[in-house]
Write a structure and sequence with these properties.
heterodimer, A: 162 residues, alpha+beta, Glutaredoxin, 2 domains, 4-stranded mixed sheet, 4 strands, elongated, B: 589 residues, alpha/beta, Rossmann fold, Ubiquitin-like (UB roll), 5-stranded mixed sheet, 24 helices, 20 strands, binds flavin mononucleotide, binds FE2/S2 (inorganic) cluster
């Protein structure tokens, strides 16, 4: 087999081969495989899909199909912190739209976008399971509740220096 | 001297409310006390009082609410140091009166029997509270059919939404002939506004593992899969720890408890798709494919994961199982009414004083759940609606609050019991906006397979958007209804079949509010931004400039000490000016 030369991504084979080996020969692994690739690269790069398709012998169409179906997968790189603003029911009735609006204005990004300094990626999600503390947002794995628009912005600002 | 236990509620809700620094403070201050142990526990369902700290000594259990670092210090000095209870922070007390005692006494805690009491990362604490007794009894004293009969007799029905009798489901999977069967736990909890399952997964993971092992034994499965949504990182962490510990104690793996039964469980992380909560879509997702539902039959009991017989149960359903096997079917079906037996956990959120979890016997009237357990509506506002069953459910008005919570009664209203999420709304919530919210949710989450679900929901959403902009026509309401029924009939899975429910129930119970939007071009709850306008009363305005300085979009202008004005074309209706105005000069019309 010819190994395809890595284009934009450096050390593609070194970074992805261990992941491919981990799942080789197992059933139903497309989702965890892509999840691991995303963990490694920060996103599911188009060229990585091509590489996986060849090396892991999974049709590229299947990989793209799965990657675009699930909200978890991103085809673009993301910022240092992913900010998940809950737009679930409980948060909605407690004014989460205003929180999202304020973040959008303050950081000049829209849902799905990353700040130009690469620090925050904004994502609207449906329910983080802390509804009784609505409105809620999550930065990385940390959950913050009982927010106001101003509080949300100042929490995010505090991450800048971390 | 009995050891003093200091238990800090460290479920996601506790952590979100600030339990982490409290835990740190307590461990730091108490690190030299051999007679005191600080522990992390799950959620006891009093989320509105988080962070919670319980002090247990001998038979006395006293819980403090809304604890911050300063209060934690006080607790260490006064309570632990001098043995004096600090009354003003006490919320629960098992041997004396306390403000929140009634809220606990009104509950029957079967599913939540351990949540908030034990350290979920320590299997011994689960075992001490009768943990794995049910599994032992099943394996050593009962045949698989005995187990199924016990579950059938208990009257337990699926808590994931559809309410299908669990024993019957197990019987079908048991009867299927195959060399390999799967037992799946549905921990996808996709219904926004519901968090019962999260709380059990985080606070009592072994109850799920034990429930699955018993179920696996009953149907003859050797492999268990927990499909857990990735938005619950703490649940996944606790599950992994619990699985590890169960294997160490040989409660999972080969020849469990010295019997012939072999069973192990692994976790599949969801990847963020609501439709994957549906059984056949979940199976596709477990197989690594796009999570698209398929027609049934064949049912999962015959052809499920990788074509093998598969049984899928919800988290809460499974948490009941060990208790039922240990205590017997009749102890369980003692609770409930009609064909709804046992208890139901509700996630209470929205405009209520006491958001959190409550487990009550089936049949309790909605009114009691909302006004007793959830503590009614804050800020003297009026109750408007309760949303049950999430995107597949409906909004019920005041007039229906005497409806008992059981599957049949709730279904009769047009809503569904669903998974148990209850979002309560007050007069400041706009019903058209809520309907729009749910439709945009299902519209995004529709997998796209069925045209009615994919395109029909989009058309409905457009109509609702039109109405909320004040551009609706009265005929739109009929059109909404017509589309709703077509989507119900033309969709393959539960997502499309129930997607119109929020619109249908609001049209049924809150039609006037739609009509006001259409005919008067007004939003009575003052939510729909196109129909409201902010203005400053020049008589009242003192020209303090606060509003102008705080306006995030610079829509307000005016000189100091003179009346200010809002430029309506710039205003985004965020409400900041109302919040900061010292003289209530800003109003919304
Ligand atoms: C669109 C859709 C989403 C669903 N989401 C969930 C879910 O998140 N959790 C769940 O337990 N059941 C969910 N269900 C119900 C499951 O399909 C299934 O009925 C349930 O897991 C069966 O378990 P039970 O019999 O123990 O309730 C969903 C159903 C549909 C149609
Ligand atoms: S609705 Fe926001 S956390 Fe559940």
């Amino acid at each position: 087999m010819t190994s395809s030369p890595a284009k934009g991504i450096e050390n593609m084979s070194k970074r992805l081969d261990p992941i491919i080996e981990k799942y080789r020969g197992k059933k139903g692994v497309t989702i965890p495989l892509l999840a691991d690739v995303q963990k490694e690269l920060g996103y599911v790069a188009e060229e990585a899909v091509g590489y996986l398709a060849e090396k892991a012998d999974i049709p590229a169409a299947e990989l793209f199909g799965v990657a675009t179906f699930y909200a978890m997968f991103r085809m673009q790189p993301e910022g240092k912190y992913v900010v998940r603003v809950c737009r679930g029911t409980a948060c909605h009735v407690q004014g989460s739209a205003l929180i999202g609006d304020q973040i959008q204005r303050h950081f000049k990004i829209k849902d799905g976008e990353t700040t130009s300094d690469g620090i925050f990626t904004l994502q609207y999600v449906a329910c983080l399971g802390c509804c009784s503390l609505a409105p809620v947002l999550m930065v990385g794995d940390e959950v913050y509740g009982r927010l106001t628009p101003d509080k949300a912005v100042s929490i995010l600002e505090s991450y800048r220096d971390k | 001297m009995p050891k003093t236990l200091v238990k800090v509620g460290m479920a996601s809700c506790g952590v979100a409310a600030g339990a982490e620094p409290v835990y740190k403070k307590l461990t730091e201050m108490l690190k030299d006390r051999d007679d005191v142990e600080v522990k992390k526990v799950g959620c006891i369902g009093f989320c509105y009082l988080e962070p919670l700290v319980e002090i247990e000594k001998g038979s006395s259990r006293i819980t403090y609410g809304k604890v911050d670092e300063a209060i934690a210090e006080e607790i260490v000095e006064t309570h632990i140091g001098h043995g004096e209870t600090i009354k003003k922070y006490v919320v629960l007390n098992n041997s004396d009166e306390a403000p929140e005692n009634p809220r606990l006494e009104n509950q029957v805690r079967i599913v939540l029997r351990n949540s908030g009491l034990i350290d979920p990362e320590n299997i011994d604490e689960y075992i001490e509270r009768e943990g794995y007794k049910g599994l032992e009894k099943a394996l050593k004293e009962m045949s698989p059919m005995d187990v199924i009969k016990e579950v059938l007799d208990s009257g337990l029905r699926g808590r994931g939404g559809a309410g299908f009798p669990t024993g019957l489901k197990w019987k079908f999977a048991h009867m299927a002939k195959s060399d390999m069967k799967y037992f799946v736990c549905n921990a996808d909890e996709g219904d926004p506004g519901a968090f019962m399952d999260r709380s059990v997964l985080e606070g009592d993971p072994h109850s799920i593992i034990e429930g699955m092992a018993i179920g696996g034994y009953a149907i003859g499965a050797s492999e268990g899969i927990i499909y857990c949504r990735a938005e619950y990182p703490l649940a996944i962490k606790h599950l992994n720890t619990a699985l590890e510990q169960a294997r160490e104690k040989e409660l999972l793996g080969d020849n469990i408890m010295g019997t012939d039964f072999c069973f192990d469980i692994h976790i599949k992380e969801g990847a963020g798709a609501f439709v994957c909560g549906e059984e056949t879509a979940m199976i596709a997702s477990i197989e690594g494919k796009r999570g698209m539902p398929r027609p049934r039959p064949p049912f999962p009991a015959n052809k499920g994961v990788f074509g093998k017989p598969t049984n899928i149960n919800n988290v809460e359903t499974l948490a009941n199982i060990p208790w039922i096997i240990t205590n017997g079917a009749s102890a369980f079906n003692r609770y409930g009414i009609g064909r709804s037996r046992g208890t139901k956990v509700f996630a209470l959120a929205g405009k209520v004083n006491k958001g959190g979890l409550a487990e009550v016997p089936m049949g309790m009237p909605l009114r009691d759940v909302i006004f007793e357990l959830a503590g009614g509506i804050p800020n003297n506002k009026k109750f408007k609606a309760v949303q049950l069953g999430g995107p597949s459910g409906g909004c019920l008005p005041e007039a229906l609050l005497d409806t008992p919570v059981d599957y049949e009664s709730i279904n009769a209203t047009g809503a569904i019991m669903g998974s148990g999420g209850m979002v309560i709304m007050d007069e400041t919530t706009c019903i058209v906006d809520v309907a729009k919210f749910f439709l945009s949710f299902v519209q995004k989450e529709s997998c796209g397979k069925c045209p009615f679900c994919r395109i029909g929901t989009k058309r409905m959403l457009e109509i609702l958007e039109r109405i909320s902009r004040g551009e609706g026509k009265m005929e739109d309401l009929d059109l909404l209804e017509e589309l709703a029924y077509q989507i119900k009939d033309g969709s393959l899975c539960g997502l499309g079949q129930t997607a119109p429910n929020p619109v249908l129930t609001t049209l049924k119970y809150f039609r006037e509010e739609y009509e006001t939007h259409i005919q008067d071009k007004k939003c009575p709850a003052k939510v729909c931004t196109s129909l409201i306008k902010y203005s400053i009363d020049p008589e009242k305005c003192i020209g303090c400039t606060k509003c102008a300085r705080n306006c995030p979009v610079n829509a307000i202008s005016g000189e100091i000490k003179k009346a200010h004005v809002i430029d309506d074309s710039i205003c985004v209706r965020c409400g900041k000016c109302i919040e900061v105005c010292p003289v209530n000069a800003v109003s919304v019309e």
